Amino acid sequence: MNNKPIIALDFPGETEVFQFLGYFNESLFVKIGMELYLQEGPAIVQKVKEQGHDIFLDLKLHDIPNTVKSAMKGLARLGVDLVNVHAAGGIRMMEGALEGLEAGTSAGNNRAKLIAVTQLTSTTEEEMKNEQKINLSLLDSVLHYAAISKQAGLDGVVCSVHEAGKIGETCGQEFLRVTPGIRLAGGAAHDQKRIATPDGARADGSSLIVVGRAITGAQDPVAAYKEVCELWGEQ
Ligand SMILES: O=c1ccn([C@@H]2O[C@H](COP(=O)(O)O)[C@@H](O)[C@H]2O)c(=O)[nH]1
């Protein structure tokens, strides 16, 4: 897995995806999420992989342990690089996810990294307290979810840049902090609440950044991607 900025392919179908990918003449790290996967199914993963791109399959599984285990076993066969669940599903569910992923990975292939969503980057502390009835600061809630994800044996978490540094200190620098909510300076936040710039993400301890609309919605997506790469300082 490389550490290029991960481009969120939040498009309604494969026509838009391949038009977008056609602007680039290099291999990318892309994210296939619910919008695209639920329209196109597993075939879209195969088609994007055939073009040589690394893939984060962002389906955020959250169900009883047995169901998540079986679903992960199936997803493992798609041969993606990164997959995820919701940490709110609990330790047994996350352990099940890992078992399923290991069971579904064919001998000789690398297992996909498994990460857990802590608090969505669209959530504010006020919303978390009022709607989820979690009586902690948002940072403490994220740190708690990171701690139980690590306890379950996962490879890292999805969090915002604002919590990434502290998670690195408490869970170790090898524990991945994958951070969406990335915007170029002055860019619209849309529905995101805990946002940061690519250079801010680098400075504050992200391991990988996820960038959607700042690139896919740009007048010149290739120029926007290059700007993100420069600010992120792709290694
Ligand atoms: O906490 C989370 C978890 C996942 N996402 C996903 O990342 C992208 C972000 O898109 P932008 O257009 O850059 O806002 C999107 O696919 C989300 O589903 C997230 O934003 N926050």
TrEMBL record:
Active-site residues are D58 (for ompdecase activity), K60 (proton donor), K60 (for ompdecase activity), D63 (for ompdecase activity)
Q: Name one GO biological process term.
A: 'de novo' UMP biosynthetic process
Provide the GO MF annotations for this entry. Answer: orotidine-5'-phosphate decarboxylase activity
Establish whether keyword Lyase is in the entry.
yes
Q: Which UniProt keywords apply?
A: Decarboxylase, Lyase, Pyrimidine biosynthesis
Which reaction does this chain catalyze? orotidine 5'-phosphate + H(+) = UMP + CO2
Specify the superkingdom: Bacteria
The protein's name:
Orotidine 5'-phosphate decarboxylase
